[in-house]
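Section 5: illustrative case.
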């Protein structure tokens, strides 16, 4: 019986494989793992304590903020500040980025972009939600206050990225650019344990994931692609199955394991779509690319986008490489994204 390897043990073992690593990133990843365990405890008992429902406020996106959103945001930011490896955070829940000014964090070389609780509209109905994180090295001079440029880096510059999915089990999945590994929380010992080493997304799949309620506002190219998904064609395993949870982390995590494509496109009213570059699309794109998949805005690689603002949005087509390429083919042929 091989022993389980915990996230902390894995991160330390991996660190020894990179002689230049001082352990800062390792400690930062462990800080995120700790916050995830604390948030998981609240998510798992959300129905039992007064933490459900709205906080009575709206966030910078104008979206109603659920109490668990606020709790998760507070916990992750606190863990990052206390951990001392992070100089500052950009969060979906905060209009501007936050700089940590304590003596230890002042020397930190990493910054984090965070969606503390993605899919929060699902909280009250007990459907999986997630946390998404993206880690960069700061580009402004060490010890100086952070600048917006530190956060507006291309996704290809990420040092690490990943997500936590609070579902039937709670998993932490991340990459540092050397493959993707998944850890399942064992509540009996309170540790994330390596359960999905070297994750690899199937080159194709049978699942397409998009909010078809918006079908009439989709481009002609996307409409044609969705018709293609629904056609009967045994040799290509069509019709595909439509699965849409309304929680990006849950939809993409499922496709990472089974194969599939997740699409949140632009529309006439919202040409850049809904999902944010910094703390949703970039980190998920890094993970999926590292697992052998593809992530574009319908044409351009997500990780090549130069963000112009903290909460910038982009259309996203992400998942099994062959499925994303096929969708792009329809967009080129019939127009749109
Ligand atoms: P819609 C959740 O609010 C979220 O940000 C993603 O997790 C999810 O994929 C998407 O929005 C759902 O948006 O417009 O289909 O409800």
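Designed sequence:
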């Amino acid at each position: 019986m091989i022993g389980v390897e915990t996230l902390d043990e894995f991160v330390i073992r991996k660190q020894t494989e990179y002689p230049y690593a001082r352990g800062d990133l390792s400690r930062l990843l462990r800080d995120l793992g700790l916050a995830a365990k604390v948030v998981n405890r609240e998510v798992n008992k959300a129905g039992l304590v007064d933490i459900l429902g709205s906080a009575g406020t709206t966030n910078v996106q104008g979206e109603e903020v659920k109490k668990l959103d606020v709790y998760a945001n507070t916990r992750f930011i606190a863990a990052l500040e206390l951990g001392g490896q992070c100089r500052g955070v950009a969060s979906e829940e905060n209009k501007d980025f936050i700089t940590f000014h304590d003596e230890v964090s002042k020397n930190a070389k990493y910054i984090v972009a965070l969606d503390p609780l993605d899919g929060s509209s699902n909280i009250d109905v007990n459907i999986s939600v997630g946390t998404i994180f993206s880690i960069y090295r700061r580009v402004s001079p060490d010890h100086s206050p952070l600048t917006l440029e530190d956060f507006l880096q291309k996704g290809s510059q990420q040092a690490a990225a990943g997500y936590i999915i609070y579902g039937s089990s709670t998993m932490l999945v991340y990459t540092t650019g050397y493959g993707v590994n998944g850890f399942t929380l064992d509540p009996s010992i309170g540790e994330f344990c390596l359960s999905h080493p070297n994750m690899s997304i199937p080159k194709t799949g049978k699942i397409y994931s998009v909010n078809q309620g918006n079908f009439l506002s989709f481009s002609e190219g996307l409409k044609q692609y969705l018709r293609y998904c629904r056609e009967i064609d045994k040799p290509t395993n069509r019709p595909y199955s439509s699965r849409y949870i309304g929680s990006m982390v849950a939809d993409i995590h499922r496709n990472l394991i089974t194969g599939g494509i997740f699409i949140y496109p632009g529309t006439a009213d919202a040409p850049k779509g809904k999902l944010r570059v910094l703390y949703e699309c970039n980190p998920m794109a890094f993970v999926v690319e590292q697992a052998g998949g593809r992530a574009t805005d319908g044409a351009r690689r997500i990780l090549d986008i130069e963000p112009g603002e903290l909460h910038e949005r982009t259309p996203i087509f992400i998942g099994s490489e062959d499925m994303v390429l096929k969708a792009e083919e329809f967009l080129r042929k019939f127009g749109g994204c």
